[in-house]
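Please complete every field before forwarding. Incomplete forms are returned to the sender.

SECTION A: IDENTIFIERS
Entry label: holo-404
Bound molecule: flavin-adenine dinucleotide
Molecule representation: SMILES string

SECTION B: INPUTS
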Amino acid sequence: MAHGHVVVIGGGGTGAAIIHDLRLRGFKATLLERGELTSGTTGRHHGQLHSGARYAVEDRDIARECIEEVEILRRIAPDSLEMNYGLFVALDDEDLNFAPTFLQACREATIPVEEVPLEQAFRMEPNLSRRVRMAVKVPDGTIDAWRLPLQFFASARENGAAIKPWTEVVEVLHRDGAVTGVRVRELPTGREYEISADMVVSATGAWAQQVARRAGIDIPVTPAPGTMVAVKKRLNNMVVSHLHPAGDGDIIVPQRGLSIIGSTQWQTDDPDDIEVPGAHIEYLTSRAAEMIPAFADTPFHAAWTACRPLAGASSNVDDGRKLSRDFIAIDHGISDGLQGFISIIGGKATVLRAMGEKTVDLICDRFGVEERCTTAEVPLLPHRAFYNPALTGTPSSLEKGVAS
Ligand SMILES: Cc1cc2nc3c(=O)[nH]c(=O)nc-3n(C[C@H](O)[C@H](O)[C@H](O)COP(=O)(O)OP(=O)(O)OC[C@H]3O[C@@H](n4cnc5c(N)ncnc54)[C@H](O)[C@@H]3O)c2cc1C
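SECTION C: PREDICTED COMPLEX
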């Protein structure tokens, strides 16, 4: 017997982690995504598995959460990660002066850091600039941006979740100050219908404000797009980052056979209108070449944008940079007097599981349900099981004949 029906809006990594957790804790759960699964920010991000080193100086708690989640993902979803580690490289005196603060902050956040002698760093990464003055190894890695959420979706669906892509929520329904369900439009047929729910969770990232308005409320989220540029060669095997305070164009992630530099950041009102600003390609390429000179001579592969759902409202770009990379779950029953509606915004792909856990903890609290979170322990199904349920490996799915 389910504790209640929870509708999750948004089929990115956050929605994936929430619906998986909801099923493990015994809720009836339905996920609605207006496009394909992972078609929002999740399927377009930089692909870095953050050890937390990038955040350690600014925010020790976020850094600690990242390293904890890296260890958890290595246990529950190793096939979606490449544990290739990362090198932070100092290029000048300013970087060298910053290094002790960086090392100390990483240690305080329990991130294992190791200064690597330069000769060894050049052997590990032969394309590194010979201007590099110091190299520090951290447990960063590469995430497969599509496969990781699909592992959560496959596991949730095998566990009984309903997952409906191409289904846009056009209205959050409520009566007497409490949510009663959602009105959806199926794409491409245009058919509209209602789904009743005891609780609705918006995991719509950069679109959270638009969806909240469909419930008649406003929330503090700043859509902040960023550009990434990929070249057609894997120039580095580790994630190479500039050892300085986090800024634009300071991380090169190896992804399959490509190298990707990212990112820039600006702000927009409309997360669906985020063309690549032409100047960003040149800028990012030159930043990459400071760390790996061959980047500038390697054939261009692609440039694209993705939109950050920064938690908090900001009217200018400088403030936007300072907004936390943390996430918040807003209970609109408390903030806006609308019971049964929660928005989860902010965060990072690396911490998607933790975002799911915190959100479902809140849902359990509101339902008065005492169920422990087990997502850190339960291994996820392979991503291919999402397309081919026969690969779930459980007798039940084979008996159901779902593979035929
Ligand atoms: C440039 C850039 C680089 C990044 N790089 C990294 C990185 O290297 N490592 C890392 O850990 N994190 C990275 N991130 C952060 C990470 O990508 C995001 O935090 C994460 O993907 C957000 O996932 P989400 O599920 O919350 O949002 P999304 O993936 O955006 O999912 C929200 C979904 O809601 C859907 N939706 C919207 N409105 C409706 C509606 N009305 N009805 C139904 N569905 C709706 C959208 O279509 C979308 O699919 C990066 C972000 C950016 C912008």
